[in-house]
Design goal:
Blueprint: H1 2-32, H2 35-45, H3 47-63, E1 68-72, E2 76-78, E3 81-83, E4 86-89, H4 94-121, H5 127-141, H6 154-171, H7 174-183, H8 186-217
Antiparallel strand pairs: 1-4, 2-3
C-alpha cells in the first residue's frame, strides 16, 4: 500500500511540476510580453535545481566510467519545451545509460528527504534556515524529472527487466515469495511510509504556487 501511494505521489509531483512551469511561463510572459525574457527569468528561478540535476548526470556518468563532454546551464527552446540545461554523455550500454538518465531523480529524492529529515528534527528553530529548506525542496522537486533524451534507454531497460521478471516467475516462483517477504519487512514498510509523508511537502508547495499563479493569470 505504501509503495503504491509513493508511486501515486511521485506521479502527482511530476504532473504538478509540469503545470507549475507552464503557469509560471504564462504569468511571466503576461508581465514581460517577451518570450526571451520569460525564458531567462525561468532559468534564473530554477538555476540551483538545474545545477543539481545536471551534476547528477555528470557524477553518475563519472562513477560508471562513462565519458562526458560539455555541461550547459544556459536554457534552450526545444520544440514546445524549455531545456534548462544539458550534459553531453557518450553512448554506452543499456544499463549504464538508464542509470545516468534516472540519476537526477534518485539524487533529487535524496536531497528532498534529507532536508525534510533535518526539518523534522526541529534542530534549527531558525526561520531563515526553514525558508531555505523549503526553497531547496521547491527547486529540486521541480527540476527532478529527467527529459525524454535523459530517459533514452530506460524504457528498453524496463522492458528487458519485465521480460526477465516474467521468465523468473515462470521458472522459479519462490523468488517472488522471497521478494514479497522482503517488502513486508518492518524496515522497508517504515522507509516507504516516511517517503510518503515527505513527498507531501513538495506536492503542497507546488499546489500553493500553482494556485497563486493561476489567480494572477485569471
Amino acid at each position: 500500500m505504501y509503495i503504491l501511494l509513493f508511486a501515486a505521489e511521485f506521479f502527482a509531483l511530476f504532473l504538478l511540476s509540469k503545470t507549475l512551469t507552464k503557469s509560471l511561463s504564462i504569468l511571466l510572459w503576461k508581465i514581460t510580453k517577451s518570450k526571451k525574457t520569460t525564458i531567462i527569468l525561468l532559468s534564473l528561478l530554477f538555476f540551483p535545481g538545474t545545477v543539481v540535476h545536471e551534476f547528477s548526470h555528470l557524477l553518475s556518468a563519472g562513477l560508471m566510467l562513462v565519458k562526458t563532454g560539455d555541461m550547459e546551464l544556459i536554457p534552450k527552446v526545444v520544440g514546445e519545451e524549455i531545456r534548462l540545461g544539458s550534459v553531453q554523455v557518450e553512448k554506452t550500454d543499456l544499463l549504464r545509460r538508464a542509470i545516468i538518465g534516472v540519476a537526477p531523480i534518485l539524487v533529487g529524492l535524496a536531497v528532498i528527504f534529507s532536508m525534510l529529515s533535518y526539518f523534522q528534527t526541529g534542530a534549527s528553530h531558525n526561520l531563515l534556515i526553514d525558508v531555505f529548506i523549503f526553497y531547496v525542496i521547491f527547486e529540486v522537486g521541480n527540476t527532478l524529472f529527467s527529459s525524454r533524451k535523459d530517459l533514452e534507454g530506460s524504457l528498453e531497460f524496463l522492458a528487458a527487466g519485465l521480460v526477465l521478471a516474467v521468465a523468473v516467475f515462470v521458472i522459479k516462483p519462490e523468488i517472488f515469495h522471497n521478494l514479497l517477504w522482503f517488502f513486508q519487512r518492518k524496515e522497508i514498510i517504515n522507509l516507504f511510509k516516511n517517503a510518503d509523508l515527505f513527498l507531501i511537502a513538495p506536492i503542497l508547495i507546488d499546489l500553493i504556487v500553482v494556485f497563486i499563479t493561476r489567480l494572477f493569470i485569471g
